[in-house]
Specification:
The protein folds into two domains: 135 residues, Lyase, Ornithine Decarboxylase, Chain A, domain 1; 234 residues, Alanine racemase (TIM Barrel, Alpha-Beta Barrel), CATH 3.20.20. 30% of the residues lie in helices and 24% in strands. The strands form three sheets. Strands 1, 12, 13, 14, 15, 16, 17 and 18 form an eight-stranded mixed β-sheet that branches. The protein binds pyridoxal-5'-phosphate.
């Protein structure tokens, strides 16, 4: 009943009890389209397969699809959403989770998904058992480089193992469709793209001796979005890629799996100040948005990911605030020492910019506080 009551509050309304409505994530469709345009301009001919997990709001997915993206999935729930809600053809998707429950591979295969990532002999055999003859992409490891959000280290194998897995895939009757890698998320140095490209070239050259020729290179995601600090232009990543792919022994179709860089800057959280407090000379703004219902990455990145903040009062006189969520957990603080209106008070709004990636989808109902609502504007 409570859920229902919340659902009846008009989006962005200041009526009723605003503290009960929870945070609102506004996604600007024009900015989503611009981000796709910027990416495709930097990577001509490289089709973006948007990483669905990053922001799976149906409205966001629809806009990205219309703007020319296909989709990368990691679960059958994502598959069903894309095919059911948006009518995306399953054969256009890439299932890039390298270890899947057998039932997930089987469901995706029977639904029409052709392409699956793998990074172990075990998964190759499991995949061959339920998706015989499918297309596989062998996942190559990337060195922990200059990514701001720690996300790599779990998947991917070195060049020697990748060569072996390509041979094994062929022996199992699978199609050695391609190679894939993923730099860590929010990678800030374009050179970080060059190293896995060199590894992939090595694998391609070595498997050619076995008569194996790949059709697809999938360069993954990890491209940076603009938060409070400057980032290198996307075109610099594109230049590194263009230089490296020229060294390949033959021409290969390339695709990418951008997530964050397509959706982060389109999103702004509007959250409500539920109270201000001063403790030991430090000013605190308590809001209905916190680490557990949207700002998890502030915690995950150890505060390195700095979201641009402003407030609805907009006073010229500012003071430094710590901004914290509604729970009793001290980990709930998502910004420290940020300038906000000195006379900030209960009921004011705080705007959190660059909030479109890994926020609403990455939230919990810890302590009973509401999940964010997402609207497209
Ligand atoms: C999460 C993920 C992405 C997207 O990463 P971003 O840093 O958001 O660009 C792409 N590919 C794979 C395999 C992923 O796991």
């Amino acid at each position: 009943m409570l859920e229902q009551a919340i659902g009846f509050l008009p989006s962005g309304s200041t009526m009723g009890d605003p503290a009960d409505a929870g945070p609102l994530l506004e996604m600007r469709s024009a900015v989503l389209r611009e981000a796709v345009a910027e990416f495709t301009a930097a990577f001509p001919g490289v089709k973006p397969f948007y990483a669905t997990k990053c922001n799976p709001d149906p409205g966001v997915l629809r806009i990205l699809g219309e703007a020319g993206c296909s989709f990368e999935i990691a679960s059958t729930a994502e598959l069903r959403m894309l095919t059911g809600l948006l009518g995306v053809p399953p054969e256009d998707l890439i299932f890039s989770n390298p270890v899947r429950a057998r039932a997930q591979t089987a469901e995706a295969w029977s639904a029409g998904v052709r392409r699956f990532a793998v990074d172990s002999s075990e998964e190759l055999r499991r995949t061959a058992a339920v998706a015989p003859g499918c297309d596989v992409l062998v996942r190559v490891a990337t060195a922990p480089g200059d990514s701001l959000v720690p996300s790599e280290g779990k998947f991917g194998v070195g060049a020697d193992d990748a060569v072996r897995l390509c041979r094994e895939a062929a022996e199992l009757g699978l199609n050695v469709h391609g190679l894939t890698f993923h730099m860590g998320s929010q990678t800030l140095t374009p050179e970080a793209l060059g190293r896995p490209m060199d590894d992939v070239r090595q694998v391609i050259t070595r498997i050619a001796a076995d008569g194996l020729r790949i059709e697809l290179l999938d360069i993954g995601g990890g491209f940076p979005a603009r938060y409070a600090e400057r980032i290198p232009p996307m075109a610099e990543f594109g230049r590194v890629f263009a230089l490296k792919i020229k060294e390949f022994p033959y021409e290969v179709e390339a695709v990418a799996e951008p997530g964050r860089c397509l959706v982060a800057s389109a999103g702004t959280f509007r959250c409500r100040v539920i109270g201000v407090a001063s403790r030991h000379g430090v000013r605190w703004a308590h809001t209905d948005l916190g680490v557990f219902n949207g700002m998890m990455e502030a915690l995950e990145s150890g505060g390195e990911l700095r979201y641009p903040l402003s407030d609805s009062r907009g006073s010229l006189a500012t003071e430094l605030f710590n901004v914290t969520g509604p729970t009793c957990d001290s980990q709930d603080t998502f910004a420290t020492g940020v300038p906000l209106s000195a006379d900030l008070r209960e009921g004011d709004e705080i705007f959190v910019g660059s909030a479109g990636a890994y926020t609403a989808t990455y939230s919990t109902r810890f302590h009973g506080f509401p999940l964010p609502r997402v609207v497209i504007i």
